[in-house]
Amino acid sequence: xxxxxxxxxxxxxxxxxxxxxxxxxxxxxxxxxxxxxxxxxxxxxxxxxxxxxxxxxxxxxxxxxxxxxxxxxxxxxxxxxxxxxxxxxxxxxxxxxxxxxxxxxxxxxxxxxxxxxxxxxxxxxxxxxxxxxxxxxxxxxxxxxxxxxxxx
Length: 152
Fold this sequence. Notes:
The chain is an alpha+beta fold. The protein folds into two domains: about 15-75, no CATH class; about 100-150, no CATH class. It has two helices and nine strands, in the order αββββαβββββ. It has helices at about 15-20, 50-75, and strands at about 25-30, 30-35, 40, 45-50, 100, 115-120, 125-130, 140-145, 150. The strands form four sheets. It has a three-stranded antiparallel beta sheet with strand order 5-6-9, with no helix packed on it. The protein is elongated, with a radius of gyration of 32 Å. The N and C termini lie far apart (about 65 Å).
């Protein structure tokens, strides 16, 4: 096909065709023959991409995304969306000492290990700690046997 030697960059036509089929062109490279008419290389049918309109579409998309980025940056710079403030610790006194307490894990976020403190009144018969992922799927169920204040 007389392609240049070395590393080549481009799109996979089957992937681009699903999004922009109008940019696909069908081509036929005729067979090459020697002086006696013997076929040296067979005919090749291939799909090519019209890159000129693709470049214009990519630039237009880039400009649109840049406008969105600039707009969001303006919102942030003008404090339209205030950033989360760091959590501050406080002391809480419960009026019902017989309530179940599950404290925030520490540290949060964590990589390998974390500590969760809790308090379960003596009259509670069964207690479990359920750990969920971001999709709401239960990852682990832990049965808690210790009553009173404890650390998990």
